[in-house]
Fold this protein.
Amino acid sequence: MKLKEWWHKMGSPRWFYQISGPWQVGCGILAAVLLTVGTIWGLAFAPEDYQQGNSFRIIYVHVPSAMLAQSAYMLMGAAGFVLLVWRMKLADMVLASVVPFGMSMTALALFTGAVWGKPTWGAWWVWDARTTSMLVLLFLYFGIYALRQAIPREEAAGRACAVLALVGTINIPIIKYSVDWWLTLHQPATFKVTEAPAMPPEMWLPLLLNVLGLYCLFGANLIGRLKLTILEREKNTSWVKQIVAGAAA
Amino acid sequence: MSGFTAQLRREWLLLVQHSEEALNPLVFLFLAISLFALATGGGPDVLRDTAPAIIWVLVLLANLLSLEALFRRDFEDGSLEQLLLKAEPAFLVLLAKVLVHWAMSGLAMTLLAPLAALILYLPSSALPTLMLGLFIGTPALSFIGAIGAALTVGLRRGGVLLALLVLPLYVPVLIFGAGAVSEQMAGIETTAQIYWLGVITMAALTLAPFGIHAALKVSLEQ
Amino acid sequence: MSFDSIGEFMTMGGHGFYVWLAYGATLLVLAANVLSLSFARRRYLRDAQALAKRQGGTEPAACDPIADPENSRGLG
């Protein structure tokens, strides 16, 4: 009963706008603290890798962005499902708001991967399984972005993106599996950078902090974008006009 | 079931009426294969090694070209809307449409594969794997692609967008399909890839009609 | 501290270029995400206020003269 009520409330952009402020601030502060501590720890205090030396420190920015890129797409798939089944307005806004952050994280993961690959593999680009899946993920993000741009009516664009995001989310595991399977067959002795067998805690703790910190930053950014989208889409309601007028002072 | 067969017959008649349109992607397939031969200098070694990749990539692209027309005519003359409204299970109507599309793209390309293999010097021992892979894998292309076609049917310039939406989703089929042929040529067991193509096609067959239906409803509303 | 001096920290044992390039790009992307949101929010509020002011000016009848002007403009 309680849950159903909450679910119902989640459909109301106004309600979300009013309760989400503290969450945004909380996530933002947490993100700043975690990312600062994690990054300084990782850059200056974590021991260097006995094989890769200091280039290994790129892990502290590469892995969090790669994880976030995938989670953000999954979140779009989930939001797409909610939108198609329950027609929840907020789900449509989530779908629209996730794209910039998720897409930039995918590109960033590819870039930092290339920068890490140069000193490790001796080449900027290697067709290894993770890189290739990440590249396909970037194309999937481009698809969502382009589809939204191409459809003029906002509601139709949202639901079209929902269908695409759902199809993409079902496809991601298959893509990952097929790419893994194919490339390990061709390069059996690939040096797996992120699978160091036994990382000592002083190496993986900063990574954990940065991963959590980036998720918090994503949360804060997502809430902020959602609030802005709510203001834009509900601009003719009286409560939004009051907020706009109140912000003048 | 009668709705399904009636739809199948209708689609087939339409296809026969516009057969020249349906042939274009097949011509494209061979045109593009010739371009590859010209660009690489026609050396048998190069062509043989890259033949699985060339054939599979071009099958993907030819399939994509034929997709644009899948819902276009029905969408423009309004019969698509009626079809979805009156059809009891829209599932069967869509299934019929996609199957007929597959017959003219995937199936036709499977039957023409020996010719493509011949001009690319693919060893005849690898031909059964190529044809089996195409036969089992191409239905998935039609089903997944139909979702993209349904999403873009209402847009004026949907062509490039359709490619952008659909090609990343084709990646697994491409990997297993082309992979099976190259491995056959290297003398490695390829049953696993064929099974995987079957799995993907079955999954697409069961799930994609829902996606196509949802996408068509969105396109019809705008 | 796994480095003995600032210089060593900067060169990262010969990998300085790669490490700082990766961290710099990350900082840039994260900052762009945060800043673009705050710019967009500010631009939206400015535009919406300008619009409200214009509407308030041309359609005074829509305002409730008894309520305080701030609110009446908001509701109008």
